[in-house]
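Protocol step 6 of 9: fold each sequence in the batch and record its C-alpha cells directly after the sequence line. For illustration, a two-sequence batch is reproduced in full.

Sequence one:
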Amino acid sequence: MFALAQRGARAHAPPLARGFNSARNHIPVIRSLGQMRRWRAQARSLGLEVGLIPTMGALHDGHLNLVRASVNRHPLTVMSLFVNPTQFAPHEDLNAYPRTFESDMDKLRGLLRQGPAAVIHGLGISEYDRRLPKQNPGPPQGESPLVVFAPTVDTMYPLRGELQNLTEHKGATIHVKGWGDVMEGASRPQFFTGVSTVCTKLFNAVEPDHAYFGQKDIQQALLLKILQQDLLSSHPPPENLHILPTTRDKDTGLALSSRNSYLSEPELKVAPVLQRALKAASSAWDNCASGSTMIEVANRVVAEEQERIRNEGEDVVLTPDYFEVFDRQTFAPFRGTPTGEDKLVISGALRVGKTRLIDNLLLGWDAEALDVSNDV
C-alpha cells in the first residue's frame, strides 16, 4: 500500500527534499475503513508513529498549525475531513456548514511545497492516485507525510438511521455524563455526545499514537482527554491528546473558526468583543479577583458593546450566551479567589447576528507550545 524507508530503531522519515513537481506534492485520500486499516497496519509494521487531526474541513490557519505541529513531531499524520451529523441538532446548521474539500486539499498541499518527509506510494488506495498530472506517467508515486481520511457518512455510521435527532437514533453513542452537560453541553445538549461518538470512531479507525486539537474548543479537547482516560483507551492515551494554542486573526484577535465565514462585514467588526471580555476577566484574575467577579467583568464588556451598537445605530445583534470559570479537570464552576495552585479556564459564548462564537483563556496553565515552521 505504501513504502517507507526505515531509519534505524527510531524509524523517522528522512529530511525534507526541496524542489519537486506537483506530482510529488501528492496527498493520498482514503475513503474506506478497509483502506485506512491496511495503511495503518503497514505504518505499524514499520514502527512509525501516527498523529491524527480530526476536522470537519473548511480549513483555516488554526487547522494548518495543527498539521504543522504533527508533521514536525511524527513521521506520519492523518487529517480527517468529515462533517459529523450527530453533533448538529435538528435545528442547527448542518446543511449550511461549508464543504470545501478541493480548497482544503489545496491548502494542505501548500504546506508540503518544500517536499515530503517520507515516501508513500498510493497504489490505488486513494481517489487522488488517479488524478496525478498526465506529464507524470507510470504508477502513482505520491510522496507525503500527510494522509487525508475523508470517510462517507455510511462508513462512519454503518447502522445509518436518524443521525441528527439523537433521541430517535438507534445504535451506539457516547455521552460523558457530568462533563458533557455543562457550558457548551448545556447550550447544545447533544453536541458532546456527537463529538465523543465521532472522535471515538475516528480513534478506532486510525488508531493514532497522538491526536491534536486547538485550544479554541477547550471544553471539547479536555472532555476527550477525560473520555480516553475513563475508557482506558490507548489510541491515543490521554497524555498524547495535545491541546495547542488558539490561532487568532493578527489584526482583531478573533479566534479563527470555520463559522467566521458566516459573519457580515459589520458583524466582523463586533465579533472581537468576545476576546476583549475574556481578556478583561483574565486581567481581573491577575489582580486576585474571584471567579464570580471575573464573570461580572466579562458580561460588563459585552453589555457596553451592546450599548455602543445601539447608540451608533449599527445593524448588528449581539446576544451573550454564557461566561464561565471552571476547573480544567472536573469542569466544576470556580467562584472563589485565586490560590496560586488553580488550573482554570474562563470560557465564553455569544451570538453575533446568527453566528455563534466561542473562545477561552487559560488561567494558571498553558497550552502546549506551538513550535512549528511555516513549511513542513
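Sequence two, same batch, same settings:
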Amino acid sequence: MRVAAFTGFTGPDDVAVLERDDPAPSAGEAVIDVEACSINRHDLWILEGDSAMVGTDELPFVSGLDVAGTVSEVGRDDATVVAGDRVVLCPNQTCGVCRYCREGPENLCERYSLFHGGLAERALVDVDRLVPLPDSVDATTAAAIPTAYMTAYHMLRRAETAPGDLVFVPGATGGVGVAAVQLVDVLGARSVGTTSSAAKAARLRDLGADHVIEASDPEEIATALGERSAPDAVLNHLGGEFTELGLDVMRRGGRMVICGRTAGDRSAFDVPRLFLSHQRIIGSTMGTQGDLERLVQLIAEGAFEPPVDATYPLEGTGTAFADMQRRDAFGKLVVRP
C-alpha cells in the first residue's frame, strides 16, 4: 500500500509517498480502507519538529489521526464490525486499566496517547475505537470531525455551557475555533469570535457566529469586547497572551477552557484578579468516544456540517501541510488516499 510519510522534521518538503506492506489485523484489530483523513496542527507540529511525541528514530513516520473509510478486514469473527462497514475512528488510545479509564472520562488516562497512521491507503486500528457512520454522513465529512470537533465539544462541556451563554472564541477561524463557533450555535448559546480577515469574518457569520471582531491584537480585541457584555466562558485554543486576555474580559465567575498553545507555551496573568473574581481556568485535551458518537449523530440530524476548505490526493499531502502553514484555509483540509 502507499503511505504519505514524514521523512524529516523541517516541513512540508519532507513529505514523501512510500510503499509499505499491507497491514494484517490481530484479535481486536481491523483494517480500514482509508477514504479520507483530515490533517491537524498536531500533525504539522510533528512535521516541523515541534513535538516530543515523535523522534528521528521513528522516521519515516506516518501521521494522520482523523480517519474515515470502510472496514476491509477484521482480526476475528466476533468483532463488533464486519467487512463493508462504514466507520470513523476515535483517535484516543488509552490503557484501559488505570483509575481514569475505569472511572472516566477516558481522555484523563494516565498513558493517554493518540492514533497515527491515517495518511495511507489502509490503516490498522483498534476495533473498539470505530464509530459507525450513518448513510447520510460521507467519509470526507466524517474525517473532519474527530480532533477539532471532539476537542471543541468537550471544551464546551467542561465550560458548562448553557443556552443563552456568551462564549468568547479567540482565533475563531482555526480548526477548533470554527468547530467551537458551530457547536456554540448548536447548543443555543451565543458566540464572539475573532479573525484578522474580513473574508473569514463573513464565513464565521454564515456559520452562526453572533459577533465577529476583526482584530488579532489582544488590546484591540479587549477594547472591542468591552463594548459588549462580558463573556460567560472562553474557549482558548491559542494559549500565550490570550490567556490573560480571556481572564481580563470574562465575567466574574466565568470559565476559561484551554486546549492549545499556538500563540505560546507560557501565559502570565493577574493571580489576585483570578481568585477575587472567582474565575476558573480549566485544561482540556481532545474528547471522549461518546463525544464523537454524539457529534456524528448531530451531523446526521442536520444540526451542522463541518466546512471543508480543500481535498487532496495522497500525493498532495505535502501541499496540504503547506496550505495549513499559510493559514489561508477556512475549514478542514482533507487527504483522500
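Proceed to step 7 once all outputs are recorded. Observation for sequence two: The radius of gyration is 20 Å.
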